[in-house]
Amino acid sequence: MNTHVHDHEHSAQVSQRVKTLIARLEHSGLTTEQHLDDLVQEFLANARPENGYRIVARAWIDPEYKHRLLGDANAAVEELGVDLSHWAPVRLRVVENSDSVHNLIVCTLCSCYPIALLGPSPSWYKSEQYRARAVSEPRAVLHEFGFDLPDDTRIVVWDSTAEARYMVLPQRPAGSDGLSESELAALVTRNGLIGTAAV
Amino acid sequence: MFEIGALVRAREQRTDGHTRLPRYLQHRRGRVVHVLGAYRFADEAAERGALAKTQTLYTVEFDYDGHAVRADLFESYLERDA
């Protein structure tokens, strides 16, 4: 059985479980489907990758902001108006790429992801293939994303196994010196913040 | 308690229930690189919710051929590696 089919069957099973759970909760008067939809809507309304792009652009132009971001990301992203209240106990950590180190984010156990900063995760991030191979052969995975690192760059894979969520701070691209903060933000991609692209 | 730089080994998974210790790391040697602080122990929280005790959570680095994996592991998942 190939992995794609397996993933598909697995997600159908999960959907069925969620439906059953919601039906039980409604039946016992604890919530309604509408109430749940409203909660998800409210959460997702402000959870967009543009949050991540703005944070990176600010860190590129303001070394003191970058210092705060790498030291206490929860406080630093709230400075820029990103609401983390839905996430109460979760620790946000931003990890910085350099010429010698490249960071890659994964959750091998499920699909932990900094949704408040990046929006809902792409389907490949949740696939069994990515989750298994990111920790066993990251260089090959990056190659399949069209991203080849120099041989002497050390890859650090962050497996989001517990109460922390990770975002990558990519290196500022060469030749971007004259750009404004919003122009810099427009250079950043979601994959750059996961580590499957350079920026 | 483990200090930053401590050499540790991930224990064997001993539960049939919920755990946040990935199987691929069990028995592997690593090094503590960060102390995240006290968090509700996930294995216990899955059954007892807010009644679960807290444990110290560590970021542990494991060396692989050509790369490193860092994972956040609760204290009881780890033993000191002599």
Overall geometry of chain A comes to globular
Oligomer: heterodimer
Unreliable runs of chain A, pLDDT <50, ≥5 residues? none
Low-confidence parts of chain B, pLDDT < 50 over ≥5 residues?
A: none
Outline the biggest β-sheet of chain A.
2 strands, parallel
Number of helices of chain A: 11
Q: In order across it, which strands form the biggest sheet of chain A?
A: 1-4
In total, the number of strands of chain A is 4
Give the spatial strand order of the biggest sheet of chain B.
Answer: 4-3-2-1-5
| Topology of chain A as a string of helices (H) and strands (E) | HHHHHEEHHHHEEHH
Question: Count the strands of chain B?
Answer: 5
Which structural class do you get from the secondary structure elements of chain B?
mainly beta
Range of helix content of chain A: 40-55%
Helix and strand string of chain B, N-terminal first? EEHEEE
User: Strand content of the residues of chain B, in percent?
Assistant: over 45%
**Mean pLDDT over the full residue set of chain A:** 92
N- and C-termini, Cα separation of chain A? 35 Å
Q: Cα-atom Rg of chain A, whole angstroms?
A: 19 Å
By DSSP (H or I, 4+ residues per run), the number of helices of chain B equals 1
> Any idea what the shape of chain B is?
globular
The biggest sheet of chain B amounts to: 5 strands, antiparallel
